[in-house]
Specification:
By secondary structure, the protein is of the alpha/beta class. The chain contains 43 helices and 20 strands. Strand 14 and strand 15 form a beta hairpin. Keywords: ATP-binding, Membrane, Nucleotide-binding, Repeat, Transmembrane, Transmembrane helix, Transport, Vacuole.
């Protein structure tokens, strides 16, 4: 469930003022303008009904189709009514044609009777009927396509909302890839089919009307044509059944492919660091090949369907005419009957040719409706599992609660939970890793399956997850999250969450754009932004899932004091804090101790320490381990608190005999030494500050001019006075607490002294704060953009895009199927001309010869040639259909392969500046368009285009004077179309443009019909056969132009997918993965020495260099700690070592080999990195450790043992074949990082890089990782970007970076001896000296 969901009640109500965009998709997500579709399931949890009530039998299953019909059915009926009027008007024209032919036959008689006006009336009637039909047809399409867009938007909204509320059981059945496909592919199919649903009833109606009128014209001979159609119906049913089967298979493979691509894009940095791109590219290609196999079978079916239904109209015509000639008494097919019948057959051609499209659309839509409906019918999280009661006495209350993540698991995750949290209290949740602390938070949120009990929440909730959720937006947008910007509150939140110094470093301040998943922020910064978002939301209840684990101890203390504690911003709020920091526990109101899914103890800190219980044992275990580690990077106050806690715990546990007297004394001495050590350090620091106050000011002025150069000396003096006052206050408070324990001071005196200290401290800091606030009045910074805007072409689609697609098909293949289709259309036109010659034959017009052999031979000759022309058409269309089917599937496969290969080889800067959703859309929607829509629409366009051209040719042949009209109207047609298309800039208005363009262009087409009819009336030397031929083809002009405009628009709309895919096949790529001429030896590097020689690097063109001429040499086996402020260039050094970013100048030498000379995979596969973010992929645990199957099981088990995961893996059902789930969701954050450690242990190269590897994990996992690194990588060169300075104090050398330069590089002792060194200042800030 999205983190955004938990801010709905806590956020301010003016979120609609914020504009949503591609980078801020969740802002304004619930505005009034968005579709509001609720799909409820009777009787299901979360549906709003009583869960205990038995659902009615006829209510199940819920039908998405019925919901759509009830919601949009009336509007669709309006569109279909217009189509009904159009269909009826279409069959008026053949009747008018018969009347017009009779008029030309009796022209002389009409003129003698003075009734020549009737001819003009008949001709005008053609125009009126055609124009009215055009208006109705276009209105039908306009309503249908607009409605389709609304249905698509509503379904996307429904799927999105459902994805936020789907239950945990249902999440197992639905992958991210499937949800992406539902929104991008299935919802689009619903839009596509909505505009053509009229085909379901219109095609049978048109066929029925045509057959009825044919019966009136040709009599029982019509039954022969009907028989041909009936023979094709079972074939059509078989094709539909097969297509449905293939569609289901294709969508299944598409879901798998998109799921894998989602994970590949999310973990691309890890793939590149480990050189795993070929393995995952192969996995994607394997799924794609299965998908193409199904697509190929579908294409063969479509080829068969195209063959039969393209030939069907002619075969129906041939069968009907042949039967009429053979069985009629006169054996003569006159022009009246032939061309009235031909016009009816031409009308019949349209619905018959639409049948393949109808079958395809209906099959695709039925599959999509089923898939979307199945997803929407899945169980929701039970909304009744958490009851919201504003009158509740407690902020949160859980009574006898039992919860689980998996109903199939017999053991619940949480059992017998009883919690009552009063308003305004600070409650800590503690316990070992895996005890169920985060699950308890999830139970309060309603995210778990509640098996029994009640959960009552009083008011709004804000949630800070263990892994920070960051939007691809600016820092400010991430914090505001749609709320109104209140500068006073905002600045206070920034300061309290320790973000002020970070924003000063960022180029755009809080307007700096954060990349996807916070790629340009450290783990601690992401966590602080996530916390700031929650604090700014101003909720009543705060659920904080260990937000302090990713920050340094002194930063954590700042946040605890300024935000969480009773003195912080949330002091009047209810706070539930999951924490591993036991030193915070004395300051909380209540503590919940979670053990094995149960609350083993609860109470205040004093109550829990009053006896030797689970809590006391937990504290002793943790603090003893912590003392043994001797981590000295803590704040002295924190260390003092820990020492006192340990002494108190020892005294409690010793009372029960659990600890011997010697052990008690030892632990007390240990605590005393720690406390003395910390106090002595504080005293030294205080003395140094007093002695070196002027020198300190000089140092800051010289080394940090950009940050403090404008600050007056008096501000610093006030600042140091505030620090002195703070230390005094701390000492006074400690003395008070110590003396109060011995009874020397009463409770009132203690409180009074604390208040005095607090007032003194507040006065000092407020003075400094006022002066610093004056200094901060600066001009607002411009937004620092990271993500590039998506390219969008406007106007007419370039011809080069079509050429790209034809090139993917193959130029020869393209020419071949265009040639075969043009020949087919030419033969089709000639068959109509042959028919006109047949009806105009003077021998056949002489009825007196009807019983002679010459007459019958002449009829058989015409009929035989007519049938032969039909056979030639069948052969040509078969060749066309087969070539098109095979080559279009090949083109789809080639375009996808080229895009995938290029994406896998793209540099990291491409992924940093391009949202993964944009890339994923290319692989889902655009590939789907190339697979299915473009081939179908290209066939329809070719049929319509050649049909329209052939119509104009026939009319010009039969009525040459028609050329006088067709040429100027054709030029006008082209100019209008080109002008209107050039104005179209956005896809959203393309349907409106199509509607207006169709109305205007069809008006020109109707003028052509009028011209053809008028020329037939006024031309006295034209026989009735040519009149019938000319007007019957002219009647196709309007429909042809109508469909041509629509098909051209649809084809241009969808051919853009080829352009978008092609764009991502041409983006810049990395260097070659393998350089065959400069491959290193198999055991390289043997020593692990690394040299940077005047190395410069920048992330993007136009930016200043991040690393500015770095030069240093690291000996093999040396341990180097890399430190520096945020933005100093620490991570840039590691990405440079792996060549994720190429050098601007200079070089890096590893064991005498320049890394620029060898292939990227030869380099990256010989280095090992333990990254900050633990990234896992869906699949087995073994695949995540060894995707190339390089190592045997024994080696993998050893790596798991050293990574402290062996017992966990042995406890899973399938052990190494254990499925990790998407993104490793089945594992905790700590376990994921340990899996990454096991990867590093498997590779174990001579060079190991640790990039803040423990910044986002709890302290227990941190201890395990540090211990393993010290024991297993003793002979390796280690480069560590330090998260905590104490972890590198025993390293050989320390490298201090600032502004992209190496400021210091020496042993820790040497740097600490120099009190002017930057490292000494950093160690002092971290309380290490």
């Amino acid at each position: 469930m999205g983190v955004s969901s938990f801010y709905r009640n806590g956020s301010r109500d003016d979120s609609n003022n914020v504009q949503a965009s591609e980078r801020t998709p969740l802002l304004n997500a619930s505005s009034n303008g968005s579709p509001d579709v609720t799909f409820r399931i009777p009787g299901k949890s979360g549906s709003g009904s009583d869960p205990n009530q038995e659902p009615k039998k006829d209510d199940l299953p819920a039908s998405l189709f019925k919901v759509l019909v009830k919601t949009y059915g009336f509007e669709l009926l309006q569109a279909h009514f217009c189509k009904l009027i159009y269909d009826l008007l279409q069959y008026v024209n053949p009747v008018l044609l018969g009347v017009l032919i009779n008029y030309t036959k009796d022209r002389q008689k009409m003129e003698d009777q003075g009734q020549e006006w009737k001819g003009f009336v008949y001709a005008s009637a053609f125009f009126v009927v055609s124009e009215l039909g055009s208006i109705m047809f276009n209105q039908n399409f306009h309503i249908g396509l607009s409605l389709g867009m609304r249905i698509k938007a509503a379904l996307i909204a429904a799927v999105y909302k459902k994805s936020l509320t789907v239950s945990n059981e249902s999440k197992k059945e639905t992958t991210v890839g499937e949800i992406v496909n539902l929104m991008s592919v299935d919802c689009q199919r619903m839009q596509d089919v909505t505009g053509y649903l009229w085909m379901l009833w219109s095609a049978p109606l048109q066929i029925s009307l045509a057959l009825y009128l044919l019966w009136g014209t040709l009599g029982p001979s019509t039954l022969a044509g009907l028989a041909v159609m009936l023979l094709l119906m079972p074939l059509n049913g078989l094709i539909a059944a097969k297509q449905r089967k293939y569609q289901i298979q294709q969508m299944k493979f598409k879901d798998q492919r998109i799921k894998l691509m989602t994970e590949v894009l999310n973990g691309m940095k890890v793939l590149k660091l480990y050189a795993w791109e070929p393995s995952f590219q192969e996995k994607v290609e394997e799924i794609r090949q299965e998908e193409l196999k199904v697509l190929r079978n579908t294409a063969y079916l479509n080829a068969c369907s195209t063959f039969f239904w393209t030939c069907a109209p002619f075969f129906v015509t041939l069968a009907t005419f042949a039967t009429y000639v053979l069985v009629s008494e006169s054996h003569y097919l006159d022009a009246d009957k032939a061309f009235v019948a031909l016009s009816l057959f031409n009308l019949l051609r349209f619905p018959i040719s639409l049948l393949p499209m109808l079958v395809s659309f209906v099959v695709q839509a039925s599959v999509s409706v089923k898939r979307i409906g199945k997803f929407l019918r899945q169980d929701d999280l039970d909304t009744s599992s958490v009851q919201y009661n504003p009158d509740s006495e407690d902020a949160i209350r859980i009574s006898r609660g039992t919860f689980t993540w998996d109903k199939t698991n017999p053991k619940p995750t949480l059992s017998d939970i009883k919690v009552s949290i009063p308003e305004g209290k600070l409650v800590a949740v503690v316990g070992q890793v895996g005890a169920g602390k985060s699950s308890l938070i999830s139970a309060m949120l309603g995210e778990m399956e509640k098996l029994q009990g009640t959960v009552t929440v009083k008011s709004s909730i804000a949630y800070v997850p263990q892994q920070a959720w960051i939007q691809n937006a600016t820092v400010r947008d991430n914090i505001l999250f749609g709320s109104e910007h209140n500068p006073r509150v905002y600045d206070k939140v920034i300061e309290s969450c320790a973000l002020t110094s970070d924003l000063e470093i960022l180029a755009g301040g809080d307007l700096t754009e954060i990349g996807e998943k916070g790629i340009n922020l450290s783990g601690g910064q992401k966590q602080r932004v996530s916390l700031a978002r929650a604090v700014y939301s101003d909720a009543d209840i705060y659920l904080l899932d260990d937000p302090l684990s990713a920050v340094d101890s002194h930063v954590g203390k700042h946040i605890f004091d300024k935000v969480i504690s009773h003195k912080g911003m949330l002091k009047r709020k209810t706070r539930i804090l999951v924490t591993h920091g036991v030193h915070w526990l004395p300051q909380v109101d209540h503590i919940l101790v979670v053990t094995d899914g149960r609350i083993s103890e609860s109470g205040s800190y004093e109550e829990l320490l009053s006896h030797d219980g689970v809590f006391a044992q937990f504290l002793k275990t943790y603090l003893t381990q912590d003392q043994d580690e001797e981590e000295d990077d803590e704040d002295p106050e924190i260390a003092a608190i820990k020492a006192r806690i340990l002494e108190r715990v020892d005294s409690v546990t010793s009372d029960t005999g659990a600890t011997s007297g010697d052990e008690v004394m030892a632990s007390r001495r240990r605590a005393s030494r720690s406390l003395s050590r910390q106090f002595s350090k504080s005293g030294e620091k205080l003395a140094e500050k007093k002695k070196e106050k002027p020198k300190a000011v000089d140092r800051l002025t010289e080394e940090e001019k950009a940050e403090v150069g404008k600050v007056a000396l008096s501000v610093f003096l006030d600042y140091f006075q505030a620090i002195v006052a703070a230390i005094k206050a701390r000492i006074l408070e400690r003395v008070d607490s110590v003396t109060s324990d011995t009874g020397a001071t009463s409770g009132d005196e203690v409180m009074a002294s604390r208040r005095r200290a607090s007032r003194s401290l507040s006065r000092q800091f407020s003075k400094s704060g006022e002066k610093l606030a004056e200094k901060k009045k600066e001009k607002p910074k411009a937004v620092d953009r990271l993500t590039e805007e998506e390219k969008a072409e406007v106007g007419k689609v370039a011809l080069s895009v079509f050429l790209d697609y034809f090139q993917a098909i193959g130029i020869l293949a393209t020419l071949a199927f265009f040639f075969f289709f043009a020949c087919y259309q030419g033969v089709n036109v000639y068959s109509s001309i042959w028919l006109s010659q047949w009806t105009a034959d003077s021998v056949l017009q002489n009825r007196s010869l009807s019983n002679t052999s010459e007459y019958s031979d002449r009829n058989e000759m015409y009929l035989g040639v007519y049938g032969g022309l039909g056979a030639v058409q069948a052969i040509l269309i078969l060749f066309y259909a087969i070539i098109a089917a095979i080559r279009m599937v090949k083109a789809a496969g080639a375009l996808h392969h080229n895009m995938l290969s290029n994406i896998m080889r793209s540099p990291m800067v491409f992924f940093d500046t391009t949202p993964s959703g944009r890339i994923l859309n290319r692989f889902s929607r655009d590939v789907e368009t190339i697979d299915n829509l473009i081939p179908q629409q290209l066939r329809s366009w070719m049929s319509t285009f050649f049909g329209t051209v052939s119509t104009i040719v026939v009319i010009s042949y039969s009525t040459p004077i028609f050329m006088v009209v067709i040429l100027p109207l054709g030029i006008l047609y082209y100019l209008i179309q080109s002008y209107e298309r050039s104005k179209v800039q956005y896809m959203a208005i393309r349907n409106l443009w199509t509607w207006w363009l169709s109305v205007r262009l069809e008006f020109l087409g109707n003028l052509l019909v009028l011209a053809a009819a008028m020329f037939a009336v006024v031309s006295k030397d034209v026989n009735q056969s040519l009149v019938g031929l000319s007007v019957s083809y002219a009647l196709q002009i309007t429909g042809g132009l109508n469909w041509l405009v629509r098909m051209t628009t649809d084809l241009e709309t969808n051919i853009v997918s080829v352009e978008r895919v092609k764009e991502y096949t041409e983006t810049p790529t990395e260097a070659a993965w393998v350089n065959p001429f400069r491959r290193p030896s198999s055991n390289w590097p043997t020593e692990g020495s690394v040299s940077f020689i005047d190395y410069k690097m920048r992330y993007r063109d136009g930016q200043d260099p991040i690393l500015k001429g770095i030069s240093c040499t690291i000996q093999g086996g040396e341990k180097i700690g890399i430190v520096g402020r945020t933005g100093a260039g620490k991570s840039s050094m590691t990405v440079s070592l792996f060549r994720l970013i190429e050098a601007l100048s200079g070089s890096i030498i590893i064991d005498g080999t320049s890394i620029n000379d060898i292939g990227l995979h030869d380099l990256r596969s010989r280095l090992t990195i333990l990254p900050q973010d633990p990234v896992l992929f869906s699949g087995t645990l073994r695949m995540n450790l060894d995707p190339f199957d390089t190592y045997d099981d024994a080696t993998i088990w050893r790596a798991l043992e050293h990574a402290h995961l062996k017992s966990f893996v042995e406890g899973t059902p399938n052990m190494l074949q254990y499925q990790c789930g998407e993104g490793g969701q089945n594992l905790s954050v700590g376990q994921r990082q340990l899996v990454c450690l096991a990867r590093s242990l498997l590779r174990k190269t001579r060079i190991l890089v640790l990039d803040e590897a423990t910044a986002a994990v709890d302290m227990e996992t941190d201890d395990l990782i540090q211990a393993t690194i010290r024991s297993q990588f003793t002979d390796c060169t280690i480069l560590t970007i330090a998260h905590r300075l104490n972890t590198i104090m025993d390293y050989d050398r320390i490298m201090v970076l600032a502004s992209g330069e190496i400021k210091e590089l020496d042993t820790p002792s040497a740097l600490l001896e120099n009190k002017n060194s930057m490292f000494y200042a950093m160690a002092k800030d971290a309380n290490l000296v």
